[in-house]
Write a structure and sequence with these properties.
- The two termini are about 15 Å apart.
- The protein has a single domain, classed as Class II aldolase/adducin N-terminal domain (L-fuculose-1-phosphate Aldolase, 3-Layer(aba) Sandwich).
- Strand 5, helix 8 and strand 6 form a beta-alpha-beta unit.
- The protein has eleven helices and seven strands.
- The protein has a seven-stranded mixed beta sheet with strand order 3-2-1-4-7-6-5, sandwiched between helices.
- With about 250 residues, it is an alpha+beta fold.
- The structure holds zinc ion.
- Zinc ion (ZN) binds near residues 116, 118, 190 and 191.
Length: about 250
């Protein structure tokens, strides 16, 4: 268990490195599955840059997921239930306000790590009329390899439970089409979520999505972006040598 928390701490600090410009102050959050019943999540108010292992809270999946299955409760009752979901009630830290979407994505995507950030280059697109276009298209082969054939796009939602409910529907729709979890989830007017099989995958996909956002913005500045065709995207994504490369990119 110590190894997992060390990995999550390192991932979080790396995503929070100011040189990457993915988050500032208390923005963003991360999580990691402990076992079938519990996961770690960044505590509310913790900055990613300097976080330590003490900055995470262990939470039970079942009470967090149960909130998604019933009519929305008043915010105070949601907070009480999520606080009661902590594995150790004596811990005074509160789980991040986004604990429900972490519980949902760790479950629906079947991955052990989630990284959520607000990168400037991605958010400048997500706060523009081009947001959905950026999510739906691919510009270059390595974007397909790392970020998948398209990104899940979620229209703006109030953070917390409403966002988690919207995410559930969008991720399930993606799973129905592609038969696998999305590599990139884009939240309109908000930020980026990357589910990963390893911390390295979360870091690499985040970095590639940021690069794609920079190229997209540059392409829009000099003219209209020229997108890859769906045929070319699927060809690249399924090529055996590219699958091999993708596997190398996600290893620890
Ligand atoms: Zn956020």
């Amino acid at each position: 268990m110590t190894g997992l928390l060390t990995d999550l701490t390192t991932l979080t600090r790396t995503l929070g490195d100011p040189a990457r410009d993915y988050v500032i102050i208390g923005e963003g959050n991360t999580s990691a599955r402990i076992d079938a019943d519990t996961f770690y999540i960044k505590a509310s108010g913790q900055g990613m840059q300097h976080i330590t292992e003490a900055g995470f809270v262990a939470v039970q999946f079942a009470p967090a997921l149960a909130l998604l299955e019933e009519p929305a409760l008043p915010l105070a009752e949601q907070k009480r239930r999520l606080n009661a979901a902590k594995v150790d009630p004596a811990v005074t830290l509160q789980p991040s306000v986004e604990v429900t979407f972490h519980a949902l994505l760790l479950t629906e995507c079947g991955v052990p790590f989630i990284g959520h950030t607000h990168p400037v280059y991605v958010n400048q697109l997500l706060c523009s009329s081009r947001a959905q276009q950026f999510a739906a298209h691919r510009l270059f082969p390595d974007e397909c390899v790392l970020c998948g054939p398209e990104s899940v796009f979620v229209p703006y939602c109030d953070p917390g439970l409403p966002l988690a409910v919207a995410l559930r529907d969008k991720v399930r729709a993606y799973l129905d089409v592609y038969g696998e979890a999305p590599k990139v989830i884009l939240l309109q007017n908000h930020g980026l979520i990357v589910p990963g099989t390893t911390p390295t995958e979360v870091l690499n996909v985040t970095a590639m999505c940021v690069k794609a956002a920079r190229i997209f913005a540059g392409a829009c500045a000099v003219g209209e972006p020229v997108f890859m065709t769906r045929e070319d995207i699927h060809h690249i994504y399924q090529r055996p040598d590219e699958i091999y490369r993708r596997q190398q990119f996600v290893q620890r």
